[in-house]
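Exercise: predict the fold of this chain.
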Amino acid sequence: MGKLEQAVRGNAQRDALLAEARAELDRALKIGGPGRYTDQVIGAFRLGVLIGRGGMGEVYEAHAVADQREAAVKLLHPGTLAESIQLQRFLREARTAARLDCPHVVRVLEVGTTAGEAPFLVMERLRGLDLAHQLRRQRRLPLAQTKVLVDQIAIGLEAARVAGIVHRDLKPHNVFLAEDGGLRRWKILDFGVSKSGGSGTLTQGHVVGTPAYMAPEQARGEDVDHRADVYSLAAIIFRAITGHPVFTGKDVPSTLYEVVYRVSTRPSQLTELPPDVDRVLAVGLAKDPRDRFGFALELARWFSAAVTQGLDPDQRRRADELIARQPWGARLGSARP
């Protein structure tokens, strides 16, 4: 890679990190106070302060009217109620999350509709921080901490895979370290753009998800399976251990182009890492899902081995053959118009 291209990519990575910081600050400024539904009773719960806000809805701290047990209640923004696709996505999140009984997926307590016909979702109240917030504070995670994250999130993704669910928007904001009585546990949040079995995608071929963590087939607007979530988990690992997103661009189209046609920078070029970690991420971030790990637990097993005793010869051979075909930093398959 030429020095000029390295400098350009370095500037793009710094810009991406600044954009992450601005987005995090914007989210923080919007939460912690009263919202439009504060003090209202929704289902069996009285709503308190606003604790989260996204593109589709708001999340409130809540307590059960009968016994004061804590919960979190998510409601759609009023402006989205007339948008059938947004409404269907919200309802699908409720149905999808309610099907999953796993300690590493946020637990759903109640699903219903308000008197004003607005759907709501009651979830367990989580205390702690999402991964995006943690990466704002320390930029990189140690390999040992990242191993724990990967092991636990892989269990949640396996529960989703067995249930026929593809998350499609796994990213640091949707990975949460919950703290409860001294126990710390990673959990997956937000199944709002998930795909379930053969039910269709509600996207009519449009790209959904977050570009920096999106699998190439998803960036092309194609149908995806659980291997897209494997890619996203590998992208989270890359961000957590190097301090840099896998791909950056000046805008969404240029980032999507990088995702589809560019092989990432070698992770150990960005920070000191064992060579076997490079190999794990080469497989996890493979452009063709057939070259990737078959499921998230396989990725977790390889990563655990890479940061402890090392990969075995067969694992190294598989990764090295892929790297030989798709070298780090290479541009593949298409010239930019």
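Check your answer against the key: The first helix runs from residue 3 to 29.
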